[in-house]
């Protein structure tokens, strides 16, 4: 009899959790984790491109030391932030990660701008290939970030709204940090990878 009563109570508890958003919270949390993993993957992809890109630019613009130092320092700061799955549960660590990536974006923008002063660099096949890879990676970063923002928004709504907020409190699920609107505006325009400079100039500019 006691076992039967225990089973009934357990079943009621499970139904109660389900009705209070437990399953939705778990599903949403998994979506956030998956979206965050893709963000990290694309940022790592960008970081891996930096050394080769710097080396190619150095070959044509060795005296642009300030730019190279800025890019190197920015990449080092990115590496100092432990980009783990748990980072999205720590607002302070997330903010540090976001700041480091923003600095990397700015430094890369300046590095790409250097090529405008060196026609031979712009014509270099390796440089053009790296530019193409960087442009593709920046696009993937933007997409990954937006998917993460959407996933976090959905998750945070569940954590805050009744009655799922009660379940969230019981099982210790809290709101997660996201990228700021201001930062999204910045990433949408930088770094500017302009391939237009590689095309033949219009007649008016010749």
**Oligomeric organization of the protein chains:** single chain
Q: What's the alpha carbon Rg, rounded to whole Å?
A: 24 Å
Can you identify the CATH superfamily of one domain? LemA-like domain
Helix content: over 70%
Structure description:
Helices cover 74% and strands 0% of the residues. The chain is mainly α and 206 residues long. It has a domain at 36-145: de novo design (two linked rop proteins). Helix 2 (22-60) runs antiparallel to helix 3 and helix 2 runs parallel beside helix 4 (91-114). The longest helix is centred in the N-terminal third of the chain and has 39 residues, at 22-60.
How do you describe this structure in short?
The chain is mainly α and 206 residues long. It is built from eight helices and no strands.
Break the fold down into its secondary structure elements and pairings.
Elements: H1 2-19, H2 22-60, H3 65-80, H4 91-114, H5 119-123, H6 125-160, H7 164-171, H8 181-187
List keywords for this structure.
single chain; 206 residues; mainly alpha; 8 helices; disordered C terminus
